[in-house]
Structures are given as structure tokens and as C-alpha cells.
Specification:
With 230 residues, the chain is an alpha/beta fold. It has helices spanning 11-22, 34-43, 49-61, 75-84, 96-105, 116-133, 147-152, 156-168, 200-213, and strands at residues 2-6, 28-32, 66-69, 91-93, 108-113, 138-143, 175-178, 195-197. β1, α1 and β2 (28-32) form a beta-alpha-beta unit.
């Protein structure tokens, strides 16, 4: 069984659909706690480390063989808490495979986010994966102003439209990273002529492998749905 830690309920059907399409038979158990993101935004991600560690231990007690954190703001905290708490199973952040794929494309990486608290953790992650791969990287970040307010209001179409428009305006990048899992559908509507990467599919693939084999650092799988310019 794979446990997923979300900070928004909108991710539950998204990951269920990905599981049905690519990992049939994999049992998913979802835990949603919107308060984690609210507190992380107000006090900093480290403020939720203790709560996250408790949730990780609870997931393992319930039978999880791996845990996937789908929130980019607290993903690093979840990884660290998994090690510090000694939970005994792999704890993964959904955006790490995406970051590894991004630095393999080229050095100019543009991180696009709808939430300001996601920008720095994602940029640090991309730089970390670049060091791991021994590749040069130049990370730029861009906040999609006003998009998160639409997301919180339930205006998903307006939210994704703003993300798409922001991606379409990007220039001087080799690859665009959609920093939040909720942004993933915009990858299919943008017309920008560079690779656009989203985290849910490759993140779930890595976590599914970890749940099967217990590997602490699953290989990165490319997302076959990602689109390049023709």
C-alpha cells in the first residue's frame, strides 16, 4: 500500500486516475490536511515538521510501504521528517523526479508556481538534482500572480488558464517546471515551444516502485505524456 499526503482534496481523484491508468492494482491511501499548507505558508515549512513526522508514522502503522508527499511546499520537510523519524519506509516528494528530468534537458530551468511558498523549495530541489547529476543549471522562478486565489475559490478553469498564459509567455528557457501538482493540466494546453514538466505522473511512478521494492531512492522515470516542440 502507498500512502499519499496531500494538502488539498483536489489531488485525490487526480492520483486515483493516474493509478488506474498506469499502476492498476496499487492500493492508495490518501490523507488530506489543508492545515499543513496554511501553517507552512504562515510560519515556514519547518513549522510543520513534527506534525508531518506523526502523520508518516501513522501511515506506516496503517500498513504503508512508502509515503508520497504531493505538496511541493512541504515536500522537503516530509523527506527530512521521514529520515529523522526513522519511519522505516521510503518517504518521497512528488516533484523530485520532475526536477531530475528538468536538469537532464538543459541548464536553463524556469520554475513556474502559483503559490509563493513553493518557489524557493522547488528551486532548491532543482539545484540539488543538478549537483547530483553533475550538470550546470540556471534556475529562474516566476509566480503566477492571482492564480492561487482562483484555485482557492474553486475556479479551476480560471486557475489553469492563468497558468497556461504564464507558460506561453516564457522565453529563454530550456524547460519549464510546473512547481505544483495542481498545475499539471496546463501542460496540455500551453503552446510554448519548450518542454513542460509536471510532477504527478513521474512522482507516482517513483513512489509505486518504492512501495513495491522498498528502494529508498527510486530511479527517475520520464513522463511519456510530456510534450516537446515539433
Amino acid at each position: 500500500m502507498l500512502a499519499l499526503l496531500h494538502t488539498s482534496a483536489v489531488h485525490v481523484p487526480v492520483f486515483d486516475a493516474l493509478r488506474d491508468a498506469a499502476h492498476p492494482g496499487l492500493e492508495l491511501r490518501h490523507h488530506v490536511d489543508a492545515g499543513l499548507l496554511e501553517r507552512a505558508r504562515g510560519e515556514g515549512p519547518d513549522a510543520v515538521a513534527g506534525t508531518v513526522a506523526t502523520l508518516l508514522r501513522r501511515a506506516v502503522a496503517d500498513g504503508a510501504r512508502a509515503v508520497l508527499c504531493t505538496c511541493s511546499t512541504i515536500g522537503g520537510v516530509a523527506e527530512a521528517a521521514g529520515g529523522a523519524a526513522g519511519v522505516g519506509v521510503p518517504v518521497l516528494r512528488v516533484d523530485r523526479p520532475m526536477a531530475a528530468a528538468a536538469v537532464a534537458v538543459g541548464p536553463r530551468v524556469l520554475v513556474l508556481a502559483a503559490l509563493e511558498s513553493t518557489l524557493a523549495p522547488t528551486a532548491v530541489l532543482v539545484e540539488e538534482e543538478a549537483r547530483r547529476a553533475g550538470r550546470p543549471v540556471e534556475v529562474r522562478t516566476r509566480l503566477v500572480d492571482g492564480a492561487w486565489q482562483r484555485f482557492e475559490a474553486g475556479d479551476t478553469d480560471g486557475y489553469l488558464r492563468q497558468v497556461t498564459e504564464a507558460a506561453d509567455s516564457v522565453a529563454g528557457a530550456d524547460v519549464i517546471v510546473l512547481a505544483q501538482a495542481s498545475m499539471a493540466p496546463a501542460r496540455d494546453t500551453t503552446t510554448v515551444r519548450v518542454l513542460v514538466l509536471a510532477s504527478p505522473a513521474p512522482g507516482l511512478a517513483a513512489a509505486a516502485l518504492a512501495a513495491r521494492v522498498g528502494h529508498p531512492d527510486p530511479p527517475v522515470h520520464s513522463d511519456a505524456g510530456d510534450r516537446t516542440a515539433e
